[in-house]
Fold this sequence. Notes:
By secondary structure, the protein is of the alpha+beta class. It has four helices and three strands. Helix 1 crosses helix 4 and helix 2 (28-38) crosses helix 3 (47-59).
Amino acid sequence: MAELSKDLIAASATPLILSILSVEESYGYEIIKKITEISDDKIHWKEGTLYPVLHKMEKSGIINSKWKVAENGRKRKYYQINKRGKKVLDDELDHWRLIFNSLKKLWSEKETVN
């Protein structure tokens, strides 16, 4: 499979992150691992991809963060979705379903023609 384009990665970052945070709060490295896991090891984000998105989301008021000390004694910044973020996630889900269903129709029509 070809590598995902930067545009597709950018477009999917917010709904992916919000979906993860809608289950439980998480810190950066854990989010990166979860993305890799749920994509069956096909999507690999680097910190340079994730953290600018998290900072933008925090600045726009759809996630909150707090510092916590982990079991190993290291401080980690944990992110959590808030009420506004849940509304954004609902809107993102609607948008992605529309895109998915539209592509599915187009591709099924293409298969019928071939």
